[in-house]
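Q: Given only this backbone (257 positions), what sequence would you predict?
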């Protein structure tokens, strides 16, 4: 009986191993076959072979065209021009090529070029050589600074700090141009033409008249009138006291005579 039990157990184990091998063979995916690593179609990795698709060719993508850099306001400055600190030095004109190259704009920094551009714009609108505080000169300096911010933000559009500085400079220049337009219209037109500025009128202020806003406005007007009335009374009282003091000073003078 023991021998028969051992033979039956071996038969069951062999049959179970065969079933597991068949299930594993059926569950294997076609792309796990080693033939996919070879180039070209191949048929069959074992029993019940299958066709392997040809390899996919990944063609190169089209190269993206680089955007052209915006034209800078400093592009019209020649590289052979001397820096602003050395333009009035006569010795800089007669030096050799190496020293002259060091003193020219070819090796100058961006801030030095910007300073030279500011001086060029100021020279267009200033009244004389010593004019550094007129409205036209301040507009020219702000114009050079605003254009520099605009060129910077076209490359670095996420720079919020410089964007804020640019908007503040634009508001300051608008106020100066508005005052210049009211005071001297001919000078205003001349400055806009020389600096290439397009002046646009600000939009008209509009606010919807709600009941709350009307009530608040009426209350503010009423308070303003009361304050003006109190100031007028105080002014009148001071005048009366001053007139009474002058009359009192005149009476003793008459009695002594």
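A: Predicted residues:
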């Amino acid at each position: 009986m023991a021998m028969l039990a051992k033979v039956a157990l071996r038969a069951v184990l062999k049959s179970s191993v065969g079933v597991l091998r068949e299930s594993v063979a059926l569950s294997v995916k076609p792309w796990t076959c080693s033939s996919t690593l070879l180039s070209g179609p191949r048929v069959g990795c074992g029993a019940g072979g299958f066709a392997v698709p040809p390899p996919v060719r990944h063609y190169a993508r089209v190269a993206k065209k680089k955007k052209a850099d915006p034209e800078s306001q400093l592009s019209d400055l020649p590289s052979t021009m001397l820096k602003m600190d050395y333009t009035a030095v006569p010795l800089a004109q007669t030096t050799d090529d190496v020293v002259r190259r060091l003193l020219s704009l070819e090796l100058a920094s961006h801030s030095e070029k910007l300073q030279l551009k500011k001086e060029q714009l100021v020279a267009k609108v200033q009244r004389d050589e010593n004019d550094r505080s007129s409205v036209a000169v301040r507009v020219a300096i702000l114009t050079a600074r605003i254009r520099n911010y605009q060129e910077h933000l076209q490359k670095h559009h996420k720079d919020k700090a410089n964007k804020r500085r640019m908007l503040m400079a634009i508001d300051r220049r608008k106020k100066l141009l508005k005052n210049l337009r009211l005071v001297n219209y001919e000078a205003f037109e001349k400055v806009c033409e020389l600096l290439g500025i397009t002046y646009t009128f600000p939009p008209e202020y509009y606010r919807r008249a709600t009941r709350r806003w009307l009530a608040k406005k009426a209350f503010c007007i009423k308070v303003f009138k009361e304050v003006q009335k109190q100031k007028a009374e105080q002014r009148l009282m001071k005048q009366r006291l001053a007139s009474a003091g002058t009359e009192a000073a005149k009476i003793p003078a008459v009695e002594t005579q």
